[in-house]
Write a structure and sequence with these properties.
By secondary structure, this protein is an all-alpha fold. It contains nine helices and no strands. The termini are far apart.
Length: 264
C-alpha cells in the first residue's frame, strides 16, 4: 500500500494561514461579548481563547523551524487540549459561578483537613511524649484549636450551602441576577486566601495578634458572603434558617477565639 504524499510547503502555509485567521477572528469575537452576560463567564472564555491562540502560535512557529515528530505531537496535543477546554466551558454564568464556588470550597476543605491532621499529630505526640516545645503548641494554644478549626469549617460550610442553593434556585435570566452571581463569586474567592492565612497563623509558635487579625479577616469574608446571599434572588424565606445558623456559627467561633487571644 502506497502512502499519500506529504503536503507541500505551500499547502502547509495555506492551512496555517487559514487557522491563524480563524484564531484571530475568534479572539476578536470574544472581545465583543457583553459584560452583561457575566463577568466570570466572559473572563473564562477570553482566557480559554487566548490559551488556544498561544498554543497555535507555538505550534506554527515550531512547524516552520523544527522537524522533531515527538515535539510536534506534544504541541499538537496542547492545541487539542485548548480546544477541549473551550468545548467544556460552562453554558452560562450560573454554571460558571457554581464551578468557581466548588473550586473555592475544595480549597477550604483541604485547609480544614490540613489543620485537623496537625491537631491529630499533636495529640499523638503528646501521648507518646515526643513533644518539642519549640515546634508544637503550648497548652494555652491548644485551647484555641477547637474554635479555630470550627471557624474554618464554618467558612467551608458556607460555600457548600451556597453552591447547593445556587444549583437548585439560581438563574441568570436577568442582568440583575447575573450581577448578583458575579458578586457572590467574587466574594467567595476572598474566602480561601483568608482561610489560608488564618491556618498558617495557627501553626506554632503562635503570635496572638496575627491569629486575631487573621481570624477577623475570615469572619469578615464569611459575613460579607452571607450578607450578599440575603439580598440575592436565589435565597427565599425557607433559606433564612441556614443563613441565620451560619451567621451565628461564625460569631460563636470568633467569640471563643478572640478572648483567648486577648492579652491578660
Amino acid at each position: 500500500m502506497t502512502q499519500k504524499p506529504l503536503p507541500t510547503v505551500s499547502e502547509i502555509q495555506d492551512v496555517l494561514h487559514t487557522i491563524e485567521t480563524l484564531a484571530l477572528e475568534l479572539t476578536a469575537l470574544t472581545n465583543t461579548l457583553p459584560v452583561s452576560q457575566g463577568f466570570w463567564l466572559r473572563n473564562q472564555l477570553r482566557r480559554a481563547v487566548n490559551t488556544l491562540g498561544k498554543s497555535l502560535v507555538e505550534l506554527f512557529t515550531y512547524l516552520q523551524q523544527e522537524n522533531s515528530f515527538r515535539n510536534q505531537l506534544a504541541m499538537t496535543g496542547c492545541v487539542l487540549e485548548s480546544c477541549q477546554a473551550i468545548i467544556e466551558l460552562p453554558k452560562d454564568n450560573l454554571e460558571m459561578v457554581i464551578r468557581i464556588i466548588a473550586e473555592e470550597e475544595s480549597q477550604l476543605a483541604d485547609a480544614a483537613q490540613e489543620i485537623e491532621d496537625e491537631v491529630k499529630a499533636d495529640k499523638l505526640a503528646q501521648v507518646e511524649e515526643e513533644v518539642d516545645n519549640t515546634s508544637t503548641w503550648t497548652n494555652q494554644d491548644r485551647e484555641l484549636l477547637p474554635p479555630c478549626v470550627g471557624l474554618v469549617h464554618t467558612a467551608q460550610a458556607t460555600l457548600k450551602r451556597i453552591r447547593k442553593v445556587l444549583r437548585e434556585q439560581g438563574n441568570c435570566d436577568t442582568v440583575e441576577n447575573i450581577a448578583q452571581l458575579d458578586a457572590i463569586a467574587e466574594s467567595a474567592q476572598l474566602l480561601s486566601p483568608a482561610v489560608d492565612d488564618f491556618v498558617s497563623s495557627i501553626y506554632p509558635p503562635m503570635t496572638k495578634s496575627v491569629v486575631s487579625g487573621c481570624a477577623l479577616a475570615v469572619v469578615t469574608a464569611v459575613r460579607q458572603t452571607l450578607e450578599l446571599c440575603q439580598k440575592s434572588h436565589w435565597v427565599g424565606e425557607n433559606d433564612k434558617s441556614w443563613l441565620s445558623f451560619l451567621l451565628r456559627a461564625v460569631d460563636h467561633n470568633n467569640n471563643k477565639v478572640q478572648p483567648l487571644l486577648s492579652p491578660h
